[in-house]
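Ticket 4471: requesting a sanity check on a complex prediction with pyridoxal-5'-phosphate. Repro inputs:
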Amino acid sequence: MASPDAIPLSKPDITELERQLVDEVLRSGRLALGPMTERFEAMVARRAGCEIGVATSSGTSALQLMLLGLGIGPGDEVITTPLSFIASANPILHVGALPVFVDVCPKTLNADPAAIEAAITPKTRAIMAVEAFGNPAYMDQYAQIAAKHEIILLEDSCEALGSRHAGRPCGSFGRAGAFGFYPNKQITTGEGGMLVTDDSALAEVVKSLRNQGRDSFPTTEGVGEGPRLGAWLQHHRIGFNYRMSEVTAAIGIGQMQRFDEIIERRQRVASLYIERLAGNEHIVLPTVLPDSEPSWFVFVIRLAAGYTAEERDRIIAGLRNHDIGAAPYFPCIHLQPPYRERFGFREGTFPVAESISGRTIALPFFGGMTAREVDLVGQTLDVMLSRENLSRS
Ligand SMILES: *Cc1c(COP(=O)(O)O)cnc(C)c1O
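Returned structure tokens:
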């Protein structure tokens, strides 16, 4: 159905370099646990301002291993935001702990530090901070609260690779951070994730857990042959297969080699949008704090206060009818069916997050977008908004 003029919601930025690196792996015969994974881990860790990277099968599995590696489990509470992708809370449930949601600040859309502090109980083990749409805020306050209450600050930085706050890279604020490389993220490997940390003991446990509980000998030695065969068949804990393949890591290396260019292209598109949409009284643009530098995961606007979710959904449908990708990022996690059923959450629990979530629109956003395409999205949005406002009066 999509016409050649369709503008998708997102589009991966893949070049000949990534294709060459994948080809190199396929020719090498070494498809798992090899040098590409180690190189990719070092590249992402350096960008995130951390000493160690542990590549995983997804951002979600990196988060699960982060929590398991720190011994967070049944009886523990982890404070987090309801205004995020569901995968920032699910891993807390996967390890048997309880996600405790707090409301967000209307300006930055990130968890309200005062609400976090008010939610701390003797069972609280950690704060899982999330940069909403990759746009960081309050990290210093989260760190102060964690230190004061002797709990752990963790970062689900899956939307924030390359973002910085107060001069520091996202992923480096807590004991550990997690990135995801799904095709709509700043960089992609198709599927994939990574834990980053300076904590070598945590990294060792996570490396073991991702590899069926084996000892974490250097990945380049560990393919289950020769003198290592004994170690390969020793399992010290009940682990998982959450490894990243060499093919996946090769794509990641290409993306990281082009990282500055990829992020510059995204920043350019974000600036084009801000210029095009500024001054439209019906639209609230993302707020970037003076000490924050987002690398732009998505470009999410919201309709002004007073618009309903139904009106927003009609505008999204109208954009899609014009072959313009748009989506309601994100429905609140606590109102998703399994969370409602399990915890009895109802509308009105987190009024700020819910009100914002009912008015957001993710617009098409990818590095290759042209000024003409941004303008076309702006024009179509103008038409949809005036249609909504005509039908109101
Ligand atoms: C994308 C994302 C994840 C999960 O990453 P996957 O690689 O898709 O598992 C987790 N948390 C947030 C906030 C995300 O945006």
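Notes from triage: The first strand starts at residue 52 and ends at 56. Leaving this open until the requester confirms.
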